[in-house]
Amino acid sequence: MNNLIEIKFRLNGKETKVKVKPALLLIDMLRDELKLKGTKPGCLEGECGACTVIIDGDAINSCMYLAINADGKEVTTIEGLGSQDNPLELVQEKMLEHGAVQCGFCSSGVIMTIKAFSDKMKASGKTPTREELKKSLEGNLCRCTGYVKIIDAAEAVYDDQPS
Ligand code: FES
Ligand code: FES
Q1: Which helix (H) or strand (E) holds 75?
Q2: Neighbours of 93 (CB within 10 A)
Q3: Residue 66 region by backbone torsions, left for phi larger than 0, else alpha for psi between -120 and 50, else beta
Q4: Please, where in the chain does CATH 3.10.20.30 lie?
Q5: 90-156 homologous superfamily
């Protein structure tokens, strides 16, 4: 029996159609079906944030999200931001400038969380406090950096924001 369901959504700006099993997780669709390996599998229990992607503007743990729920949505993964071939996003530049990456396993999730949060803040004309930035990153665990440089990078995203 064919129990695949076709879903259509925008992935990194492109209309995308995929046939998925009803119980397939978004992280598995991205990594295994679509070969986008930048979204990292860490705990697979919604605890570490390594698998964070942006769905309709919100940072979402893709290990806790069914692929079929992406139907009709706008999904952005780390591959949709800057790369060696495309200009870096501001958050990526700030992560580099502040030395906020060591082993890099958490980095794509951290970047997606900072991007979703800063897009919302900027859209509402707000500049978050350092405490608010820390809170926004509560769901992203990093074994290497001690967090200070990540928070510094997140704060620097607002450097050009009028106060
Ligand atoms: S892998 Fe999804 S939250 Fe850890
Ligand atoms: S840089 Fe290694 S886990 Fe964050």
Answers
A1: strand 74-76
A2: 15
A3: beta
A4: 5-80
A5: [2Fe-2S]-binding domain (1.10.150.120)
pTM higher than 0.85? yes
Distance 43 CA to ligand 1 centre (A): 5
* Ligand 1 proximity of 54 Cβ (cutoff 6 Å): no
CATH topology of domain 5-80: Ubiquitin-like (UB roll) (3.10.20)
**Each residue of 76-87: pLDDT tens digit?**
999 999 987 889
Q: Which residues of the chain are in CATH 1.10.150.120 domains?
A: 90-156
Ligand 1 site, residue 59, Cβ cutoff 6 A: no
Residue 6 Cα, ligand 2 centroid: separation in angstroms? 35
pLDDT tens-digit map of 53-78 = 999 999 999 999 999 999 999 999 99
